[in-house]
Specification:
- 26% of the residues are buried.
- It is elongated, with a radius of gyration of 18 Å.
- The protein is mainly alpha-helical and 172 residues long.
- Helix 4 crosses helix 5 and helix 5 packs across helix 6.
- Helix content is 48%, strand content 10%.
- A two-stranded parallel sheet has the order 1-2.
Length: 172
């Protein structure tokens, strides 16, 4: 069933399911999403900035990059990307969008690359953490997780389990 974790209780109620034995949460982005160019999740391709997990939602990564104030960009890059250059990246994004709207992943990746000193660009792609931050903000990934867990626990039958697959510290 296509839905969001945060709607599990409502979906179960709609199906007449009062208790469940288990929940498996697979958090974050999938390799399929990263490899599908038109989804706009990856800095490996120069495609429109999208990053929506659910394409039915109207807000996109382009909206965040071009619409959030500098302090909010800084906050999400710092908090969700855990990037030590968050302040400089946010500043560079705002400066670039004042000249021209940022519409592609390639444009954003180049702006980020220019905001990080060359000696710090050796370990992995410089845009990785910022792309993660924008994706998490756009899809409300941590909010959904936080807001869903109590309801999932309430649905569990005696002896039921919740298992979580996660790949980065924020989700942990």
């Amino acid at each position: 069933m296509r839905n969001n974790f945060c709607r599990l209780a409502g979906v179960c109620a709609g199906l007449g399911i009062e208790r469940i034995d288990g929940v498996l949460l697979d958090l974050g982005v999938s390799s399929y999403q990263l490899d599908t160019e038109e989804r706009g999740f990856s800095y490996r391709f120069d495609t429109p900035l999208d990053m929506r997990m659910d394409r039915r939602q109207s807000l996109t990564a382009k909206d965040i990059v071009n619409g959030y104030p500098e302090r909010e960009l800084y906050r999400i890059i710092r908090d969700y990307g855990e990037d030590q250059f968050a302040k400089n990246i946010a500043k560079h994004i705002v400066q670039a969008r004042e000249k021209k709207e940022i519409v592609t992943t390639g444009e954003l990746a180049e702006i980020i690359k220019g905001a990080i000193p060359a000696k710090f660009r050796q370990s992995g792609h410089p845009a990785k953490q910022t792309f993660q931050a924008i994706r998490i903000e756009l899809n409300r990934e941590l909010d959904v997780l936080r807001d869903s867990l109590d309801g999932m626990i309430d649905l569990l039958d005696d002896g039921g389990r919740i298992a979580v697959i996660t790949f980065h510290s924020l989700e942990d």
